[in-house]
Every structure is written in structure tokens, then in C-alpha cells.
Amino acid sequence: MSSTNELQQTIADMVDDHRGILAADESLPTIEKRFEAINVTATEANRCAYRSLLLATPGLGEYISGVILFEETLGQTDENQIPLPKTAKAQKIVPGVKVDKGKGPLAGAPGDLITYGLDGLENRLEEYKKQGARFAKWREVYPITQHNPTPLGRQANAEMLARYAAVCQEAGLVPIVEPEVLMDGDHDIGRCATVTELVLHAVFHALHRHGISFEHMILKPNMVLPGKGCRLAEPREVAEATLRVLSRTVPAAVPSINFLSGGQEPEEATANLNAINQMKGNAPWQLSISYGRALQQPALQAWQGKPENREKAQQALLRRARLNSLARQGKYDPSMENEDD
Ligand code: 13P
After folding, report:
1. Half-sphere exposure of residue 244: CA atoms within 13 angstroms, side-chain side
2. Strand-pair category, 113-115 with 103-105
3. Residues in the chain with pLDDT < 50?
4. Is 198 in contact with 204 (CB distance < 8 Å)?
5. DSSP label of 82
6. Which of 261, 265, 300 to mutate to test the pocket of ligand 1 (most atoms within 8 A of CB)?
7. Which end of the chain is more exposed for a tag (fewer CB within 10 A), N or C?
8. Which residues contact residue 45 at a Cβ distance below 8 angstroms, ignoring those fewer than 6 apart?
9. How many C-beta atoms surround the C-beta of residue 146 within 10 A?
């Protein structure tokens, strides 16, 4: 298959009007933090058991079309020696992989960050592809302060995302482009809107300069929200601000926008997605999820690292996936949170 056909097929398998993406690609330090909260040690075996239970959740493919895996998971097998990417595939869930190598300070721009991992990316992608990955993810992170992100920070981060996306498309992997403006801080929703708009402008300008095919990528942005130290915003307010910023920055050729949850509570992230979809009018893109915490939190709580809780954890994941699928269609109501499955 030519790489364009390959990219087109992956988009067709991942993008529809009712499913979303599960982010299960926590790096080693992050999964350690998540497991610590339930008193589980992040050994390789525990990481494998947990991720294998997520992917084997019966019926998950009804609501989830893609899963972002951590590099390690691509090579892991379940108790029956079935590779985990195969377990996803069997449910019609496309496996993908996080390919960035984490972040650090950006020299010359105090307070801004930059993500590592471009060196040798072509070779790594070849390996990931052999292991079953059909798309990739790269995250750039933008803290908001009075001075950040700086113009240099916005430009340097956009350049990284564009270079990564170009390498992916050449290799026949759909790039998920993730510029995350963080919720940390006490800024208001207006400041987040201003920053997100500047960030997305820079990202799409760079993607264009690097010749990215917009039709064959997925954007994974933050919703426009007030900082954690500020008051909570109503879903309507979040939806209005988010749609305004996206309409001013994202080309109509991009097939799907899949939001990250970024530290929102699961119910909050679902309600905000629902409001966005109720208000979207004739927006040209699919508006869906690529949630990590907001999908997994209840499952982790139910699991507690105990094999006997495996089914309970799967039910918790399936429930959040189903509610987000409804929100994806603007058909969610918070009262559904109290209904039995
Ligand atoms: P959250 O939804 O927990 O923000 O995770 C999404 C993700 O993949 C971050 O890179």
C-alpha cells in the first residue's frame, strides 16, 4: 500500500461520529504516580496486567476506535501470549504509540518547555510499525504564566510538532499532534483562549510549512478552560470559548479533533464534550476524545491492583467510554451518572 493509502485507511478506521481514542500511554514516571494513588507498585508485570485488562474490556470497540500505547506495551503479551496490540485490533481498536521522549526546559525561553525524541525517529517508527502501530502521538506542553508561553516557545514547539508529523506521514503513520496548554495556574478562561489561539496558529503555520497533509492527521488539543486555581466554568462557557478558538485556527481539512482531558474530573470532561457537540453547528471536524485520566480514573480505582477486580475495572472503563460516546453525539445528561449499567 502507498503511504497515502495507508494513512487514508487508518483515518477511515479511527474517525467516525460516535467513537473516541483511549490514551493509555503513560510514561514510566506517570504510570508510577497513577499506581501510587492506589498503592500498587509499577512493576512491568503490573503495568502489563493493567493495560491488558483495559484492552480486553468486552465491548470497548463499540465506543473506542484507537488506543495510544506506551512503547513498552507494544511488545507485551497477555497471559495467553497474545500481543497486546493484537488484543486491541481484535476489538477493531487501532493501536498507536506515543513516540516523544518527554520534556525539559527550553533554553533561551525561561518557563517554556520543549519535548525530546526526534533523533532516530524514522528508525523507531519502522520498529513500532512492525509491532502493529498505525499511528503515533507527540505532545508539546505549554505552561501559562504571566510571561509564558513566549513567542520563541510557541515557535520552537510548533516546529517540533511539524517535524515529527512529517516523519510520521512519510512512514505511513497518522500523526496525532498534541499541543497541550496546561490547566495549572489561576488564569481565567479568557487568558487560556488567547494562549490556545496563539499556540494553534503557530502549530498550523508550521504544519503547513512542513507540507503536512491535514487530511491525514488528528489534532489533540486542550479544551479552553480556566486555570485550576480559578473558578470552574460552566460547560456552555467552555464550549463557546473552545469552538471559537478552534474555528479561528484549525483548517476544515483536518478530519478529527480529539481533546485531551488534562486533569478535568471524568464527569466534567464528559459534560464539556457534550456541550461542545451540542453547540458545534456545522463545524467541519469530528469533535471527540483522546482522554487518559478522564477515561481511566474510575477503572484504576476499581482495580486496586487485584486480579479479582479485573471485571469491575473493565465495567468502569466501559461505562466512561459509553458516556463519552453519548457526549460525542450531544446526547449525554449528567443524570446518567446515577443510572445503573
Ligand atoms: P489526559 O487525558 O489524562 O490529559 O491524557 C491525555 C494524554 O495523552 C496526554 O498526553
Report:
1. 14
2. antiparallel
3. none
4. no
5. -
6. 261
7. C
8. none
9. 8
DSSP letter assigned to residue 38: T
> What is the spatial distance between Cα 218 and Cα 176, in angstroms, rounded to a whole number?
5
Residues with Cβ < 8 Å from 22, sequence gap 6 or more?
A: 54, 60, 64, 66, 67, 68, 93, 290, 291, 292, 295, 296, 321
User: Pairing state of beta strands 218-219 and 64-69?
Assistant: unpaired
- Dist. CA 193–CA 244, nearest whole Å: 9
Q: Give the SS3 label for residue 126.
A: helix
According to the model, what pLDDT value does residue 132 have?
Answer: 98
Note if the pTM is more than 0.70: yes
Ligand 1 atom closest to Cα of residue 261: 2
DSSP codes of every residue in 214-244: GGG-EE-PPP----TTSPPPPHHHHHHHHHH
Distance in angstroms (rounded) separating the CA atoms of residues 157 and 153: 6
- What pLDDT shows up at residue 31? 98
Phi (first) and psi of residue 262, to 5 degrees: 65, 20
265 is catalytic: no
Complete domains list, the chain, with CATH: 3-338 (3.20.20.70)
The one-letter amino acid code at 222 reads N
Question: What is the identity of the amino acid at 122?
Answer: E
CA distance 163 to 258: 20
pLDDT of residue 2: 84
Cα–chain center distance at 304 = 24
